[in-house]
Amino acid sequence: MMLRQGDRVALVSPAGPAAPDLVAQGVAILRSWGLAVDEPVLAGGPPDKLNYLAASDAARAAEFTAAWLNPEVKAVICVRGGYGCMRMADQVDWASLPPKLFVGSSDVTTLHAELHTLGRSSLFGPMPGTEAFVKDPVAQANLKRALFAPKLWFDGGATMAPGVARGVLIGGNLTLLAANIPQFTPPHGAIVLLEDIGEEPYRVDRMLTQLIRAGFFDGVAGLLLGSWTGCGDVGPVLEDRLRPLEVPILSDFGFGHCAGQLSLPLGVRAELDADLRTLKIL
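Given the sequence above, the corresponding structure tokens read:
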């Protein structure tokens, strides 16, 4: 699916609250692309002094669902991540949601996973209520292209383990993937995306080990690793835990919590060539 100028998009807040000034800047950027933008409708503030949530679980789920069910809305875009998607996910009737473009990252990994269990595709990219979007023209340009004229070929990164893999792209933030075990595991032959922010190497080790012990990587065809901002010297941990899987691995691919972040499709078939350092959407 692609957007055209004049299409209507809805911003939603499924997780944490976004700063009003950042939301206003993000909305202005989206409107400069020729989009009609429905701003977040949540009001009343965090519930019971839980100031890390944009609103109650029921309110966030209702806003999210209403955006999907509005026939005039062509894309649903998350304002920001933070924390909270896991709390509201079970209050959404996922099977009732019609196909639409969906954008989010970080904590929104939980919602991507729910869509992927239905065979839906989505975009793992920057969110307009964050500095990572409003202060990063490259990330803006990458998202704009993904929405209006998606790239079918990406290159970059570094080869961690050689080989070629073909499969459906799934995954996202490591912390959220670990937190969603056993509710979500990759389909056989998937190419898994992994990234994170602000986690010490031993915590990255713990989460990868948790996934390995849970069988998360059983049958995975390949791995695409993004940014590990604020995670210290995490390279040896990734090598130690992931190379024994004996699948192609491409690292430092430029998605996640990093400058100029890519907007990558999830839920679509792709070819990962770790030798040529390319990702082709099939």
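The first helix runs from residue 20 to 32. Try to locate this feature in the token string yourself.
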